[in-house]
Design the sequence.
């Protein structure tokens, strides 16, 4: 399958990793086509394009496919003509990478499991409209028809359930403690004196908790009941307030 000249970013609207890639491309002023894909369909598209795996986001551009939010940002930094909006300054480069990797590998994963362990297991009808958002009618109907199968696959592959959600909740709490401590000196940005990929990564991956009004999708999402009670206690944590502020100012 021939890859396009104009980059096409394939995403799930609900994915906070997809939001990370999308925000970086928008911030750097890179023109691309946004394509919402249906669960299941995304794997078929990824294979046809020759992507190394099937997860979103993936960006199809001339001659290659870039997969994963971090790699998409790396690509975007190489092709952008903007010098004022560099997202990966050379100074403290290791620190930028360290924080981004930790938020990707720990908080991002467990925030997803915390939400889905309640929403997908106990309230799946509330999740389905987000997965079908901006899809053509034919693809929306397809998702509705196979939704039971999609739900079972996600529960199995993501190891979802009440106990798993509780474990993820406690891990998230520890990661928020770490971020709150980083922000305790009043800094505007996590590293350096300007917005970086680290700020975009952390704000994007905390967005399912903070529900910032400027988020393309989460502004319309409600937390499921148990998660809502947790978030009532976390709502004024420095890292949650910081996330909303970064969105307000830079998204």
Sequence:
């Amino acid at each position: 399958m021939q890859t396009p000249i104009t980059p096409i970013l394939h995403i799930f609207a609900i994915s906070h990793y997809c939001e990370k890639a999308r925000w970086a491309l928008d911030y750097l002023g890179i023109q691309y086509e946004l394509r919402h894909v249906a669960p299941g369909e995304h794997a078929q598209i990824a294979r046809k394009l020759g992507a190394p795996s099937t997860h979103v986001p993936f960006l199809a551009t001339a001659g290659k496919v870039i997969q994963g939010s971090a790699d998409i940002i790396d690509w975007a930094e190489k092709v952008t003509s903007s010098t004022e909006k560099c997202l990966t300054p050379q100074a403290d480069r290791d620190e930028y990478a360290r924080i981004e990797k930790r938020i990707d590998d720990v908080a991002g994963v467990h925030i997803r499991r915390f939400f889905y362990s309640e929403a997908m297991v106990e309230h799946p009808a509330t999740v389905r409209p987000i997965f079908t958002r901006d899809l053509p009618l034919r693809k929306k109907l397809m998702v509705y028809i196979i939704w039971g199968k999609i739900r079972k696959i996600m529960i199995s592959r993501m190891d979802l359930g009440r106990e798993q959600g509780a474990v993820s909740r406690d891990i998230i709490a520890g990661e928020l403690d770490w971020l709150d401590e980083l922000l305790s000196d009043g800094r505007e940005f996590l590293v350096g004196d300007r917005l970086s990929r680290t700020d975009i990564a952390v704000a994007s991956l905390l967005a399912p908790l903070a529900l910032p009004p400027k988020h393309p999708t989460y502004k319309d999402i409600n937390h499921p009941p148990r998660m809502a009670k947790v978030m009532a206690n976390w709502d004024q944590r420095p890292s949650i307030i910081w996330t909303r502020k970064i969105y307000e100012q830079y998204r």
